[in-house]
Amino acid sequence: MTSGRLRKVVFPVAGLGTRFLPATKVVAKEMLPVLDRPLIQYAVDEAVDAGADTLIFVTNRYKHAIADYFDKAYELESKLAKSGKNDLLALVQGTLPKHVRCVFVTQPEALGLGHAVLCAKPVVGDEPFGVILADDLIWNGNPGSGRPGALRQMSEVAARESAGVLAVEEVPREDTRKYGIVDSEAISERVARIRKMVEKPEPDVAPSNLAIVGRYVLPSDIFSLLEQTSPGAGGEIQLTDAIEALLQKQSVLAYRVEGTRFDCGNKLGLVKATLHMALQDPQIGQETLKLLRSLEQ
Ligand code: UTP
After folding, report:
1. What is the pTM of this model?
2. Which residue has the least CA distance to atom 18 on ligand 1?
């Protein structure tokens, strides 16, 4: 990679989302809102901030809401235009910048994150690309705030070091069994070279407390490795298994992202993210604070 710009970003959104059933029976969990924006909007804004112009959604045949969300909403838009509600019209039309295109790829069966990423191969082709798991919301202020989003930070490191980059975060020791954990050697304050990765280790055997979270910058070499990866835990093709194989061939870095991560794949994480955004909201921030204080008593 020579420039820090990532043109293509993959959004795997074909998981079953069982932790949010029954809501996720018909909508992907990435459509769940944090305040007034679905999770996928935060993720798309982050990808665009990193320079993406091609967004690849790996979806399944049951959940059409994401495609509809980024499509033109003719009836709604014409009603808002006729009634002069220009602010709302701008919101509806602003889900995607004009220069950005969406490509939808189907994952026929939920065979795991690795398999979902592999489904994007024909669209990604032969260039480095980003992967965002939208249920991990990483917030470093609005993209307009001047602070780079997580993926932009990572793509700059990937370009500078000509390496794959995985986002990591320090987690409490007792939580290592929920994550892929890296064994790494620090290069700088935020960057470390990965020696190996251990999937969901018990706290007493975990090589560190640096957990892999939902952002990846990967070279296209990962696709052939995914093709050779046999199903692992739960019969799923694991992305971390292919990255483990990539490590044998080239350097892969762990990057401690600047920003706050909310694990919105579970209920408490979604509530935390919602409260965080509500407290920052100019219209309801004060009232939300009052509400929280009243609950304390
Ligand atoms: P998760 O491990 O969070 O699984 O997937 P899940 O099915 O979405 O949710 P739960 O655990 O049942 O509640 C991590 C990411 O990988 C995607 C998901 O959409 C999510 O963004 N994924 C997972 C796929 O696209 N396809 C798969 O086969 C599995």
Report:
1. 0.95
2. 15
**Taking the domains of the chain in order of start, what are their residue ranges?**
8-265
**Residue 222: partners with Cβ closer than 8 Å, 6 or more residues away:** 117, 164, 242, 243, 246
Fold of the CATH domain 8-265: Spore Coat Polysaccharide Biosynthesis Protein SpsA; Chain A (3.90.550)
Asked whether 152 and 51 are in contact (CB, 8 A), the reply is yes
| Digit-coded pLDDT (tens) for 195-234 | 999 988 999 999 999 999 999 999 999 999 999 998 877 7
Nearest CA to ligand 1 atom 10: 17
Distance (Å) from CA 271 to ligand 1 centroid: 19
> Which residues have any ligand 1 atom within 6 Å of their CB?
12-19, 29, 58, 107, 110-113, 115-116, 133, 135, 265
Give the ranges where 52-189 is alpha helix by DSSP (H). 65-70, 74-82, 86-93, 113-119, 121-124, 150-161
